[in-house]
Amino acid sequence: MRSDNLLRVSCGGVELDSPIVVASGVWPFEKDFWQRDSFPGLGGICTKAVTLNRREGNPGTRIWETPAGLLNSIGLQNRGVEHFLERDLPVISEGGIPFIVNVAMENHDETSEVLRRLEDMRNMIPAVELNISCPNVSDGGMAWGRFAETSAQAVSMARKKWKGPLWVKLTPQAEDIAQVARAVEEEGADALVVGNTWLGMAIDIDTARPVFERAFAGLSGPGIFPLALRMVWEVCSAVTIPVIGCGGVTSYRDCLAMLMAGATAVEVGTVMFLDLQSGKSFSSGLEEYLLARGLDGMKDIIGKARQ
Amino acid sequence: MRSDNLLRVSCGGVELDSPIVVASGVWPFEKDFWQRDSFPGLGGICTKAVTLNRREGNPGTRIWETPAGLLNSIGLQNRGVEHFLERDLPVISEGGIPFIVNVAMENHDETSEVLRRLEDMRNMIPAVELNISCPNVSDGGMAWGRFAETSAQAVSMARKKWKGPLWVKLTPQAEDIAQVARAVEEEGADALVVGNTWLGMAIDIDTARPVFERAFAGLSGPGIFPLALRMVWEVCSAVTIPVIGCGGVTSYRDCLAMLMAGATAVEVGTVMFLDLQSGKSFSSGLEEYLLARGLDGMKDIIGKARQ
Amino acid sequence: MCISEGIRDFDGIAEKLQKITSRVFTIDFHCPEIAHGSSPGQFVMIRFKDRLDPLLGRPFAVASAKGDSFSVWFQVVGKMTALLSEVSPGEKFTVRGPLGNGFGEPSGDKLFLVAGTLGVAPLLKVYEEFSGRLDCEVHLGVPDKTWKPFTEQVRQLIPGLRIFSDDGSLGVHGTCLHGLPGEIGQREEIWACGPVGMLKALAERYPQNRSGIRVSLEARMACGIGGCQGCVIETVEGKRRVCVDGPVFSSEEVAWDEIR
Amino acid sequence: MCISEGIRDFDGIAEKLQKITSRVFTIDFHCPEIAHGSSPGQFVMIRFKDRLDPLLGRPFAVASAKGDSFSVWFQVVGKMTALLSEVSPGEKFTVRGPLGNGFGEPSGDKLFLVAGTLGVAPLLKVYEEFSGRLDCEVHLGVPDKTWKPFTEQVRQLIPGLRIFSDDGSLGVHGTCLHGLPGEIGQREEIWACGPVGMLKALAERYPQNRSGIRVSLEARMACGIGGCQGCVIETVEGKRRVCVDGPVFSSEEVAWDEIR
Ligand SMILES: Cc1cc2nc3c(=O)[nH]c(=O)nc-3n(C[C@H](O)[C@H](O)[C@H](O)COP(=O)(O)OP(=O)(O)OC[C@H]3O[C@@H](n4cnc5c(N)ncnc54)[C@H](O)[C@@H]3O)c2cc1C
Ligand SMILES: Cc1cc2nc3c(=O)[nH]c(=O)nc-3n(C[C@H](O)[C@H](O)[C@H](O)COP(=O)(O)OP(=O)(O)OC[C@H]3O[C@@H](n4cnc5c(N)ncnc54)[C@H](O)[C@@H]3O)c2cc1C
Ligand SMILES: Cc1cc2nc3c(=O)[nH]c(=O)nc-3n(C[C@H](O)[C@H](O)[C@H](O)COP(=O)(O)O)c2cc1C
Ligand SMILES: Cc1cc2nc3c(=O)[nH]c(=O)nc-3n(C[C@H](O)[C@H](O)[C@H](O)COP(=O)(O)O)c2cc1C
Ligand code: FES
Ligand code: FES
Question: CB burial class (10 A; 0-12, 13-18, 19+) of residue B113?
Fold first, then answer.
């Protein structure tokens, strides 16, 4: 750990060497990807969503490119919490980089069981990110995050089971994002991730059918950045816990904008498809920005545009 | 009028030679732009928003490019309904192309006065588009369109004053778009435009300030197409009156997708900044698609992906 | 008053990219409609054909025209200009134009053409058009001697060019306003283009002669045809659109106090 | 099992574009890491550096490697391939790789390499690598004689190439499966790449020999590194990722019935 690190932030119970965190669902569990030195500049990595049982995910087309964007309908494919704890956790906890276990909200009983099992391994797990925002499943997912009341129920349950740092990932499809954010804060979340993908769709004109079996899918990538930034601004106006900006970040400039809007860290998903070294180039960019202006650290940037 | 026109549609009380309509706010009032033959392939043109009094619009930066998108914060700059009726209406009604007068919802009294004056000229005005969705003003605008109740109030007022074809332009910032759509249909709207720009923001990292004086601005352009298409699909599931798809259309393929999702016509805004001949190239594309598949007209396309 | 007549989106093919300094370039575009159809001070909006990012065209003055081609001069300041500085011959563009009012006809028999760096671009075309018929005295200001290749390139087109630099390392020490006369005569005019600070200083320098000063202004643009209202500036008659009401304004029209 | 080791995003410079037919092209990329580091059947994901549209890289087989460069063969089918068919030498790309498992080592001493049109791309590299050590018999199927320049280009690299066409207008009338033996011997294998219908037909043709057939599959990809789960196909063990568990699968692993 470099203690002289200009980019160090403390975010919702996790110490990050850099505010740049890999978002859930884009990073494989293969060992090499979790070594602190393999991908310098990253502050942390979120795992792919974990559910109680193995999930096969959605049939049919799962990804579709749009102008400066990407629609996905993966549907939480994963091998279940058992497999995660036995096979993946040992691998990813060895690399030394802080990681955050993304837990997809299914229903009360299943998800509380997942969290109970993670709680048993609390000393190995830096943080949990409760995903109440997946748009690609019929059971639970984003339905939890659309309203303040259901969001509060989910977080209240999670808070009881999981005692470590708890991040909650909100959905842009919330009816009133500020209200949801406040409700989640009240239930004891340590940080808010704002947010998941934006509900979109595509139609294949050759077949005259929706591209995705579930018709709708989640839009990510640079095209949505202005929308995500606005939502981060709104949530930062509503709560006092740290906010992690997520959605369309593709440059260190985007990171700066998110931070200046009030975010304490950023999550980057789609950009890792474009450049695996984004962590490095973004942190260099941030560092140079700070140095060029004689700023002391992230505190001089976070929320700057609000003053 | 070409009666053998494959692309002809009847949409919310207006007969269009092609389903491609220029969206509000991108087209100047200069005469040459309203001649039916100047820009072939267009079915109609929406005017820039008209308000009761002259409005200066917003100070500061008004446009900002984003990846595959455009943020604008014009703020309804226009010269007021008086000027519109005396100076612009004679010009635009001479060209022969159907036009739709975009009326921005300010408050009950002002907007009903605007509609009253338009009603006096009803024989000259093919349709009115009630804009309950402008994100760039503090008084009224999108605030009307966020909820079913306020949307209904606005449309109920408009329906009383303006007896001609009434299109209502919804906002993606609606809490529940289907509910808003149904409420607007019930109050007697003839068609729904889905939708206006998406609320976004930009931060200038050099000044560490929001780019726009009002911080938030409206996002348009190809980046939002997947979101707009999804919303059109949702609204078409909720109502039976015609829907006009609007948001990010940049190719005849996008037009087809909107139509297949259930839209009767499409409005195109930002793409006119890229190519003034979009009307022509999109209608050629549509025509070729129909001919290649031996289809008889728009009825064979509209809603096709829903079957 | 049919401003729009003839405005269309034409195909433009990049023919030649010339690097003048590390940040300043010229490109020749093959585009007969613009080459033959534009007058001094008018501009075009240029975008990569079939690319959605960058999305919008960017405004550039038509700096000169020869045969079926016209050239633009530009400085790398952001996304589009960076990409333009790496174009390959043959790349396809959409060129919207000819746009704007242009400088119009001179009212006297002497023109002072005053440029801050790239502001010289529209004035090159003015010089091309009018230097045969009347006296054109051209003043060009640059920051420092790193701009030498640029001033030399301009001098090839304008032999009598007067050069000024902010730090004195090139030409005369001072801004491009430095060598102008104390008063503008009856049959003299100043036509200027450059940073807004310079144009404002010009207005302040000749408070009594503003009607004899024409300035070409800049603003962020989306449409270039007067539709979007994105490019407005403050004038004594309220907000006006740079793209169709300008880019050339009489200095007396501009509400200089309200311009940042 | 460290699949990812060595996978990075490298710079690739387009060196040469060659047009073979109106829809088929090859490009050579300067990229030492891939040229020296990839094995037959592996692929790369290629995207325009610094362009956000098209956003994602697209997967292409490494068709051959020479010195510090490698080449890809491609057919124009959509957005990216259309743009690639117009690249200028010197254009900058990001090349992610080397990706996938590749074909691995042959288990016998005779290989039937069976390609449908562009499916020949990875097999070119297989041939380059193994034709010196063992018997490689290459079968290439195309629709019709408009593919003649393509088959000729392939034949330059593979002199003994056997050509088949669907309509009989080029080579032997029939699909590329047409000339294969009725049974695959003990020390023989079939390695194939092409449309999924062809690979399925191959599996159906040799129901008893599927373990002797290796097929390279395609799927839409976002990451290429096993992260996104976007590229899964159905196998007898459930969904597997084409990008890291493949693209080469034993024909007996694939759940052919569930593949469209
Ligand atoms: C009528 C007119 C004629 C012009 N002629 C020329 C010319 O001949 N040569 C030339 O080099 N430039 C000219 N410009 C300016 C040119 O349009 C901008 O430099 C260009 O749009 C920048 O594009 P970009 O994508 O590289 O920068 P961006 O990434 O869009 O922005 C980079 C920086 O440039 C600033 N900027 C962007 N657009 C403008 C603008 N329209 N006006 C002022 N600042 C802007 C931004 O604030 C930002 O700081 C002209 C502008 C106008 C309005
Ligand atoms: C491992 C692998 C290796 C490949 N190697 C080659 C190669 O060497 N040469 C070659 O020409 N092509 C190869 N392909 C296919 C190539 O990736 C696609 O043709 C390319 O992605 C199309 O991109 P586009 O932007 O032009 O088309 P898009 O605009 O993305 O799509 C156009 C059409 O192509 C189809 N398509 C898009 N992506 C794929 C895909 N990944 N697989 C199948 N169909 C697709 C779409 O359904 C659509 O009909 C390979 C694919 C994989 C997975
Ligand atoms: C292929 C893919 C899979 C994803 N899977 C998950 C997931 O399992 N859990 C989750 O919380 N978010 C998931 N996301 C959402 C991302 O973590 C991120 O919130 C979103 O993509 C917006 O950020 P971006 O624009 O930087 O990608 C996924 C996104 C993509 C593109
Ligand atoms: C510069 C600009 C000005 C606009 N002004 C108006 C307006 O006055 N009234 C209105 O209803 N919509 C207005 N809009 C919204 C457009 O009509 C359209 O709904 C939106 O831009 C989405 O479509 P697009 O992506 O095709 O541009 C404006 C959009 C832009 C970009
Ligand atoms: S750029 Fe649209 S009005 Fe001037
Ligand atoms: S492309 Fe992402 S897992 Fe295969």
Answer: middle
